[in-house]
Design brief:
Elements lengths: L3 H25 L14 E4 L5 E5 L4 H11 L3 E4 L2 E3 L7 H4 L1 E4 L2 E5 L8 H4 L1 E4 L5 E3 L12 E4 L4 H22 L8 E4 L4 E5 L1
Antiparallel strand pairs: 1-2, 1-3, 4-5, 6-11, 7-8, 7-9, 10-11
Helix pairs in contact: 1-2
Length: 195
């Protein structure tokens, strides 16, 4: 007889296999620009088997796009630093050249009132969900883990902070030109501002 855990694992594997195929198909039919000076960047990729592949470099965008189409990674990352030898596994041997300045604005790091309405704390001992303001579970345990949720208000506040950073500080105070600033949605919690 097949147990509940075996069924869950089988379902999980089918979902991973399906998503891997979808990602490979997407990357096979899409051309990603990638970062400037791609040959000087270190890349890392998280596979659907949750294996982190690091210290990868590409000669050009075509090589990167071929890799993405072949591997179909779940997550892709690239360094904000530029290296002489980005493929080296030891940081001392990479030959650091320069780096971008990056600001990371995450909604869950802003002190917002809505956090107390949608975030919660889960008890490690009994699994019960408690209000965010709880110091201990109703079972008496103090072993609580925060469960963060992001709402539209959170993202709008993160967007406001991003605009304020750009307009009030980067453009006005530092005299950086708009063409030197790139803004990316971080994928869930907020924005990355690259200078």
């Amino acid at each position: 007889m097949i147990g509940r855990e075996e069924v869950k694992n089988s379902q999980r594997e089918r979902v991973k296999s399906f998503l891997r195929a979808i990602f490979k198909s997407y990357y096979s039919n899409t051309s990603i620009d990638g970062p400037m000076e791609i040959e000087r960047r270190e890349f890392a990729f998280l596979t659907f088997d949750e294996i982190m592949k690091r210290h990868i470099s590409f000669r050009d965008r075509d090589e990167m796009n071929s890799f993405l189409a072949r591997e179909g990674p779940m997550h892709s990352y690239y360094s904000t630093a530029y290296y002489l030898y980005p493929w080296e596994s030891e940081m001392e041997r990479k030959g650091w050249l320069k780096a971008e300045v990056v600001f990371d604005i995450d909604a869950d790091h802003l002190e917002l009132e809505c956090k107390y309405h949608h975030d919660s704390k889960t008890c490690k001992e009994c699994g019960r969900e408690n209000p965010y303001s709880a110091e201990r579970c109703t079972c008496g345990s103090k072993s609580l883990v925060e469960k963060v949720r992001i709402c539209d208000n959170c993202l709008n506040k993160a967007k406001e902070e991003t605009i304020k950073l750009i307009e009030e500080f980067l453009l006005n105070d530092f005299g950086i030109e708009k063409r030197e600033i790139e803004v990316y949605f971080s994928g869930r919690r907020g924005y990355h501002v690259h200078v």
